[in-house]
Amino acid sequence: MDALIHLFVGLHIVGIAALLGGFLTQMKAMGRGTARFVPAMLHGAVTMLVTGVALVGLNEAQGHHLDNIKIGVKLALLIVILGLVYVKRDDEKVDKSLFGLVGLLTTVNIFIAVLWT
Predict the structure, then answer these.
(1) H or E element in which residue 82 lies
(2) 3-state DSSP call for residue 66?
């Protein structure tokens, strides 16, 4: 079971890399006001959601103690990110502030995962 948990942690990291990487590739375009949500961002957010839910279930099945408040905060941030990216995925241009908000929330989600112990 531990190997499966590690597999899902790796896939969770791949998801966050796709989301943040998609954001970072559009930073120059954001400066010009032509940034858009690329498919990698949507796929990364969905991957994070699916693997995160799987990780919670696998850890609960193992009897590990989970910080439900931390998981709830991370889930709430991810739902906001996923909602924004999904709704605006077909727009040719996304407002700078909205695009920046997704990058900020993604970064906050990373720091919550790493620093909240």
Answers:
(1) helix 68-87
(2) coil
